[in-house]
Amino acid sequence: MSIHRLSLGGRPSRRRLRSALAAATLAVSAATAGVTAAVALPAAPAYANPHTYGQDVSGYEADHDWMNSRAQFGFIKATEGTDWVDSSFPRHWRELAKKGIVRGAYHYGHPSNDPIAEANHFLSVVNSQPSKPGDILVLDLETADGESVEQVNKWAKTWLEYVTAKTGTRPMFYSGWNFANKYGRGLGQYPLWVAHYSKAPGDITPPADWKTWAIHQYTDEPIDQNVSSLTPAQLRALGRR
User: Where in the chain does DSSP place strands (E)?
Assistant: First the structure.
């Protein structure tokens, strides 16, 4: 998941939250747009961890091999803004269905746009694919787009409440720890997926007024890797009915 933002007229944002390197990440991403590197992907953390392991991808990992991954859950970028669609989404969605693990779809939000328009765009794309009970919906919010804390917070609440009303399922909220702590007040009823790369897997405290976290994204090397404090069955319980 990425803190950097590229123009929606070109290549959209890649989720890679690393605040200290945001400027450098933007420069590198802009210079390498259109290039997808082949990397050897890890099967699971190389050290003991009691949590459930998972991975998340976007079009930057269009050919990710889910069948040979030991991930117990997988999340995929579906949309961004009001009209952009990740072309790799259908393929990833099918592969996760074949594998049979917990799956989720995320939308990268831009608070400078209408939240209802963005929510409808996300739902139209996700609903165009076959669904199953337990599919998780996610708002990925990493940029303020120059808006105030109050406006970004209101935007997030509007998007989340609208998707909840339309689907009967509370979406998950994803962001970096610092961003969530600043802009996420009052969102504690939504399951939290938080990125914090300077902490060991699962060794984090929740930001803002969340009482707990559901997923911790602890690195983006060489792919976004996560652990969940929940079992696969508990994760599915957060998804669609």
Answer: 52-57, 73-80, 84-85, 102-108, 136-140, 172-176, 192-195, 215-219, 224-228
Q: What ranges in the chain are assigned the alpha helix state H?
A: 22-31, 89-99, 115-127, 149-167, 177-183, 232-236
Q: Which residue type, as a one-letter code, is found at position 57? A: V
What pTM value is reported for the model? 0.85
Strand partners, 193: 174, 215
- The CA distance from 220 to 200, in Å, is 13
Cis? peptide before 222, omega within 30° of 0: yes
Q: Secondary structure of the chain: what % helix, strand, coil (to 5)?
A: 30, 20, 50
Q: Are 80 and 110 in contact (CB under 8 A)?
A: yes
Which amino acid is it at 121? Answer: H
pLDDT per residue of the chain (241 residues) written in tens, 0 to 9: 443 333 343 446 655 443 333 333 333 333 333 333 334 444 445 445 689 999 999 999 999 999 999 999 999 999 999 999 999 999 999 999 999 999 999 999 999 999 999 999 999 999 999 999 999 999 999 999 999 999 999 999 999 999 999 999 999 999 999 999 999 999 999 999 999 999 999 999 999 999 999 999 999 999 999 999 999 999 999 999 9
